[in-house]
Write a sequence for this structure.
């Protein structure tokens, strides 16, 4: 797998240090990465979330707004397009 996550995190941390020269102990990490277990092997994959809202009817006939989040594991890096290893 590519090293986009590591490279981008390093660049972002350097930019924060540049913008805030008096800051110390700067840490940070990109969100949108999750762990996938496949064939007894754990790997990190880029992920995204799909937020969906809809109205549905309850058993009593009333309508209620429902909000859900669906996590999606990406098959390619969102930064460089390289295929993620299985």
């Amino acid at each position: 797998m590519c090293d986009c996550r590591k490279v981008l995190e390093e660049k972002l941390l350097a930019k924060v240090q540049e913008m805030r020269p008096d800051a110390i102990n700067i840490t940070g990490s990109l969100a949108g990465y999750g762990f996938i277990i496949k064939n007894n092997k754990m790997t990190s994959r880029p992920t995204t979330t799909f937020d969906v809202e809809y109205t549905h009817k309850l058993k009593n006939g009333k309508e209620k707004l429902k909000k859900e989040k669906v996590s999606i594991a990406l098959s390619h890096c969102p930064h460089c397009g390289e295929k993620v290893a299985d």
